[in-house]
Amino acid sequence: MAQLRQDVDPDEAGLDAKALDRLDQHFAHYVDEGRLPGYLVAVARGGRVAHLTTHGHRDLAAGLPVEADTLWRIYSMTKPVTAVAVLQLVEEGRLSLDDPLDRYLPEFADPQVYESGAGTDVRTRPASGPILIRHLLTHTAGLTFGFYYKHPVDALYREAGLESSVPPGANLAETMKVYARLPLQFDPGTQWNYSVASNVLGRVIEVISAQPLDQYFTERVFRPLGMTDAGFHITDEQAGRLAEMYGETEDAGIAPIPGLPLRGRPRFLSGSGGMVATAQDFHRFMEMLRRGGELDGTRLLSSDTLALMTHNQLPGGAELRTFGAPTHQERANEGLGFGFNVSVVTDPARTLAPQGLGTYGWTGVATTAFWIDPTHDLTVQFMTQVRPKTLKIFPELRRLVHEALVD
């Protein structure tokens, strides 16, 4: 079993060791205050890990420390993996970005769009066009999440049993039928709204490949990249390395909460947020992205396809701030576009924290994050297991990493 290791001194990689010490001290203070149980942070340049810190505990009650081989629920960091899987099928000619979704999932034919009203009085109209595969990859399909509490369609998702995005006990195929009978928030391609779209893509992958999603990921992504611990569930052997899940309390502390169930293969295979992985696993995935779709002689995607995934795909080069639905905070989206399941920095001067032009990445709901900065040949990942209420880790992390760049 491979573990992530530091393999170059910071100064050799163009990083300031003292600045990286400040980064460690900053987040160690969060642990000391009881706001984080523990964390792992890794910073690499040119593919070489120049800074790797583990601090605190993966399980507070058991007194188990965070270690390099700790397993983390990465939730929405699953989405870029799903995008890679979809793009493999595109390259093989089995799928097109401009294919209508109903070609593969007929239940999505003739979508309806919300017009007015609420509850049983909702009025809809036919959508101006079909949902396309590219709409799902860019979260512009008109789908939503039931937990937003911002729009009447969000409420319809909850009424349909989709508070957690999946009806209790349902599999992917069964869940698609529930999604499809609900109205869209807007016409496909006209706005950005973060949504269940990657679950829909997961089902598209299953239909085209004639494989369960976990099997496809294992055979086409995990095994080729040497992501030896990554998956949708854990074995008995892995169980002791899994980090406990915590939630932020009202007094800015943390307490254990239920996490994504991982014991035994789940019936619902979520392309939106179902994965567990180690830092080594995700470093391998990031390296494939950084190197344009190839790692150690194994190519998952062409460099042109990878460039498409990691560049802003919003119509007319729009920003999330102007193209996003009102569910999302506009200030946090300044200077950002969106590729295929990754955000993309389009104007570094206007982002909340320093980042190079073209930086792309994504986060998970348990306060995990990764990004790849092509301008500085930099990759960063941060792992912990806290569902936040007020905790704002990522702008601080980006600022502290950026301050460590020497060249």
Report strand order across the widest sheet.
Answer: 3-2-1-16-15-14-13-12
Q: Beta-strand level of the residues, as a percent range?
A: 15-25%
N to C succession of SSEs: HEEEEHEEHHHHHEEEHEEHHEEEEEEH
Approximate helicity band:
25-40%
Q: Looking at the structure, what is the overall shape?
A: globular
Largest beta sheet, briefly?
8 strands, antiparallel
Count of distinct strands:
17
Structural class: alpha+beta
Mean pLDDT score: 95
In a few lines, what is going on in this structure?
By secondary structure, the protein is α+β, with helices and mostly antiparallel strands.
List the helices and strands and how they pair.
Blueprint (H helix, E strand, L loop, with lengths): L16 H16 L5 E8 L2 E12 L4 E2 L6 E2 L5 H13 L20 E5 L6 E4 L6 H5 L14 H8 L12 H9 L16 H13 L3 H13 L20 E3 L5 E3 L19 E2 L1 H12 L3 E2 L2 E2 L3 H7 L10 H4 L12 E3 L4 E3 L14 E5 L3 E6 L4 E6 L2 E2 L6 H10 L4
Parallel strand pairs: 7-17
Antiparallel strand pairs: 1-2, 1-16, 2-3, 4-9, 5-6, 7-8, 10-11, 12-13, 13-14, 14-15, 15-16
